[in-house]
Amino acid sequence: MVLIELFLAFLKIGAFTFGGGYAMIAMIQAEAERHGWLTPEELVDFVALSESTPGPLAVNMATFVGMRTGGIPGAIIATLGIVLPSFIIILIIAKCFEKYRKSKAVGGIMSGLKPAVVGLIAAAFLSVARTVFFSSGISAAVFSTAGFWVFLALFAVTAVLAFKKVHPIKIILLSAVIGIGAGYGLGL
Residue 106 CB: number of other CB atoms within 10 A? Predict the structure, then answer.
């Protein structure tokens, strides 16, 4: 039964979420919480792990959630569920692309999806931030924690490096080193 639930949940996520892995985080969180597969803290850990491993974020998250929930068969089923809709949609688009390439309706759809994707990514960011910084409620005490200031510093450094077009792998490695150093040095 859990394998069917995994497949259907990730099939729905793969079929109805546009904008890539970050836009899918909010739906993955909703499904994982609804089914009791992960706590919000575990989801944050899975996001970090998924970002740190090769491959698309959503596929990695589906694989991790599936593995956690249903072992190797769960990992395979969840991964298949999240990938299958995109695979089918790309096959259809490839077949019809030239015919509808200049269509105003297609352009309108794409224009309408862009703000929705930004909203989904922002919702995922806020959800993760709430879990990490405000797990016991909103309080000014968060701003006096070392973890908050390490996050803020990493965010600023990452933003500057990204605007300077530093390769993402270098940014990830630098962030990991700083995070590890801060974790050991500050006891985070």
Answer: 14
Find the angle CA(54)-CA(42)-CA(146) to the nearest 5 degrees. Answer: 95
Residue position matching structure tokens 């698309």? 56
Residues 6+ apart with CB under 8 A from 142: 133, 134, 148
The pLDDT tens digits of the residues spanning 30-65 come to 888 889 998 888 888 888 888 777 888 888 889 999
DSSP state of 118: H
Task: Provide the residue ranges of all domains of the chain, joining segments of one domain with +.
Answer: 2-136, 139-188
Q: Could you identify the residue written with the tokens 């994707």?
A: 117
The Cβ-side half-sphere exposure at 145, using a 13 Å CA radius, reads 13
pTM of the shown model = 0.58
Question: pLDDT tens digits, residue range 57-98?
Answer: 888 889 999 999 999 999 999 999 999 998 898 888 888 777
DSSP line for 30-45: HHHHHHTS--HHHHHH
What does residue 107 show for φ and ψ, rounded to 5 degrees? -60, -40
Separation of CA 165 from chain center: 22
